[in-house]
Input
Amino acid sequence: MKAVFLDLWNALKKSSPQKKIVLSIILLLYIFVLAITNIKVNYQIITPGSINYTVATDTDSKDYWVVKIKEDNVAGNINTVGVYSHKQITYFQYLIAKLSPWIDISEFNPKKDLSEEEEIIRGMLMKDYSITDALIVAYEAAAKKNPEIKIAYSFQGLVVTAVAKNSESGLLPGDIIKRIDGQ
Output
């Protein structure tokens, strides 16, 4: 391997000044591309995701959820919408994000902001609760069409979706807060 590099070096020393200039420009461009695609910056981006036509939760996995008002009605699906979050992006990703009106850019502070794993847990919790909310809305809309449809639900508390890194509360994502100071 060493011999190959020595041969290349010797060939470069013997080449014309124009070839040396072209090779130098190519080498600098290569180093520049390597740098902007590998150097991380303290920014995070949120990009558009997709509409998921099927819904599955951790507690009850189904291919789809349907609310029917009458047998002859066309049933609809309950969908979820996803986005993608990328933390500590490369400088190249930052430049691309600056050019796009659909990408949200914000500063990232690893000491305060959620880690990738914490964001995944938060996303799963938010997905499960958004499905529940979507079902409530669907049944309320169905009840307007057919008064025989009843839905009974009650407020159970506030769901913890994320906990600050310096928190001493003892709370975990997924906990439900039912009382604060006994109330």
Notes: Helices lie at 2-14, 17-38, 91-99, 116-145. The two ends are 74 Å apart (CA to CA).
